[in-house]
Design brief:
Layout (H helix, E strand, L loop, with lengths): L1 H21 L17 H7 L5 H6 L10 H8 L6 E3 L6 E6 L6 E6 L4 E5 L5 E5 L6 E6 L5 E6 L3 E6 L4 E7 L3 E6 L5 E6 L4 E5 L5 E4 L6 E6 L5 E6 L4 E5 L5 E5 L9 E6 L5 E6 L4 E5 L4 E6 L18 E6 L5 E6 L3 E6 L5 E6 L4 E6 L5 E6 L4 E5 L4 E6 L6 E6 L5 E6 L4 E5 L6
Length: 428
């Protein structure tokens, strides 16, 4: 290097000069008074000859490592088009209004729900007065009403147009809320096993009593005359909403061996999918009240498991509208695509973290998932390949929904934010 060479030359010249001056005297130390510490410019000149490319390629020791800039860029990646930041705690639920898909309602840990415009995030209605985290919030079938329910069991219904609270009721610890598909009727399930039904805003009430066992999930069928309710003991009941009696009770060896976590029905309401902490999904013929299929993957304990902690819980299920396919999402991060006619596993789509929720597009074979790693992913069920991935949240996604055209997704997260993503795909 130039720097070392110049130092040696300077020392040699100094020693020769000293010998000439002092003759045979012993030299104790030679100090060159003309030398100064090299400055930045000197060092820059000296380093010009160093070939950093050759040094970096030797052994490729940096392979697989991210630079600080790359890590910051990854952490700051935000594919969303709008962020709704009014909540001051985790956001547990989000829904779009079914009439126009232009409004969203979100509920969170801050004991509030907000109705806001998806295009610009403007708040149209603040649903205040709750006593606990709002875990249920959704629009009625015609989008004229919005219901919000908190964990303590306080349920409120608001008229969107006038921004007024028009009805409220308090039940036991709330598990779920569900609007009727074609009438201003609200259904709710509670921790003590009760299922409540009200006409809104009149408040006419009917209850569906069952053994004291938590009503963990519920779904009104498309005909609006029946509802399927899943319970903590693994029982599934099909209720006649008019008569108030259970048409079918599915339990025992053919039923689930653990608490129900999710429900979904096909388009005509003839089949129901149920998911449970026992690691299984069950296909039920609703008319017959019979289990006609059981689905599980490796890692699940199967239908005989009674250990909820060890089983690979099913977190979400759904039917494809255009092909005979179903999707089952597991807590271990597996998205399983099954053929409905043969009940064979077609694809296993891996996630790095547990899946929270899945949703099929209405008129395609694409199924979307949100997971605990904070990402939204779109999968082609025909090939099993991921077709798109959207990031932006800094915590887990707890809920999401899509518009009818599947061009927009709204996600709710533990980072206190709701994000709107425009979904772009090459096939559109």
């Amino acid at each position: 290097m130039k720097l070392a060479g110049s130092c040696r030359a300077s020392m040699d010249n100094s020693e020769e000069s000293a010998i000439e001056l002092h003759g045979d005297e012993e030299i104790i130390e030679v100090i060159d008074l003309n030398d100064t510490e090299p400055g930045p410019d000197d060092l820059a000149d000296d380093l010009e000859d160093v070939d950093f490319d050759d040094a970096g390629n030797a052994g490729d020791d940096n392979d697989g490592w991210e630079t600080e800039d790359e890590m910051e860029a990854e952490a700051e990646q935000d594919d969303s088009d709008l962020t709704f930041s009014k909540h001051t705690g985790s956001v547990f639920c989000v829904s779009l209004d079914p009439a126009t898909n232009n409004l969203a309602v979100s509920g969170g840990e801050d004991d509030k729900a907000y109705v806001w415009r998806v295009s610009d995030g403007e708040v149209l209605l603040e649903c205040a007065g709750h006593k606990d985290s709002v875990t249920c919030a959704m629009f009625s079938h015609d989008s004229s009403l919005v219901a919000s329910g908190d964990m303590s069991g306080l349920i409120k219904v608001w008229k969107v147009e006038t921004k007024e609270e028009i009805w409220s009721f308090e039940v036991g610890d709330l598990e779920w809320l569900e609007w009727h598909p074609c009438a201003p009727v609200l259904l709710a399930g509670t921790n003590d096993g009760s299922v409540w039904m009200w006409k809104i805003p009149a408040g006419d009430c009917k209850t569906f009593q069952s053994p004291a066992c938590q009503a963990t999930s519920g779904k009104i069928l498309p005909d609006g005359k029946r509802a399927v309710v899943g319970y903590e003991d693994g029982t599934v009941r099909v209720w006649d909403l008019k008569q108030g009696n259970a048409i079918h009770v599915i339990k025992g060896q053919d039923g689930h061996q653990g608490a129900l976590t999710c429900l979904a029905c096909n388009k005509d309401g003839s089949l129901m999918l149920t998911g449970s902490v026992d690691g299984c999904a069950k296909l039920i013929n609703i008319t017959a009240g019979k289990v006609v299929g059981t689905f599980s993957v490796e890692g699940g304990k199967g239908k005989d498991s009674k250990d909820e902690e060890e089983s690979n819980s099913v977190e979400s299920v759904g039917f494809c509208n255009i092909l005979p396919l179903i999707a089952v999402a597991y807590l271990d991060g597996t998205l399983a695509i099954y053929d409905l006619s043969t009940q064979a596993l077609r694809h296993r789509c891996r996630h790095e973290a547990g899946i929270v929720h899945l949703q099929w597009e209405e008129s395609s074979s694409v199924v979307s998932t949100c997971s605990l790693d904070g990402a939204l992913r779109l999968w082609d069920a025909r090939s099993g390949n991921m077709v798109a991935e959207y990031k932006g949240h800094t915590a887990e996604i707890l809920d999401f929904t899509m518009n009818r055209e599947a061009t927009l997704a709204v996600t709710a997260s533990g980072d206190n934010q709701v994000k709107v993503f425009c979904l772009q795909r090459p096939d559109r």
